[in-house]
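Let's practice the habit of predicting before peeking. Look at the sequence and jot down your guess about where helices and strands might fall. Then scroll down.
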Amino acid sequence: MTIADFAPVDPRGAVLGDEVYARIGEAILDGTLQPGEHLRDHELAARLGVSRTPVREALQRLERAGLVEVAPNRYTRVSIPNPKVLADTHEFLVHLMGNVTRLALPRCTAEELAEVIALMDDVIDASRKDDMSGILRASSAMFERLTYIADNAAILRVMREGELAIRRSLAAWRPAISCPIDRSAAFERFRDALAARDGDEAERLLRALHTPA
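Done guessing? Here is the structure:
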């Protein structure tokens, strides 16, 4: 197992278990820990400078999140991405973000709406440039802002617990509309619905944007 890039955890100001969980999770996302790679708690603990207990707890959490696979008495390893799981996660997010948008629009202040519109303009700009990674970054920032504006405790909890799995699933995401002109026009219609605080139309347009023809 290659874990040379790991740095010891500094638990000051942080909950140790959460820090270990985040550090191992990020290593999976950035490829330091590769799909199928075996994970040995004593090796991880040594590299992170912690006991084996928080590492074991982190691996259990990562198993529940789908980033780690455990076969008792055989192995603990980084899970191999499953195309169906990736597609299902994307489908879940599209519907969830549609609901978030409907909740957030009537609740946001004029200043908050202006922030969301500015973030949506970043999405449109990236789309016009046919910049896939830029679209993903800008979209993520916009929907993160909408999620906090919606201020629904249940949704926030789901997003926090599922953050690593969601980010992994979105790494290979591509827009359903391949033509940058058509895609950007669709994004502009979504922006107009946001500006009008039309939650129903925004939700409909969002689902259309992310549903393959």
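How did you do? Residues 83-104 form the longest helix (22 residues).
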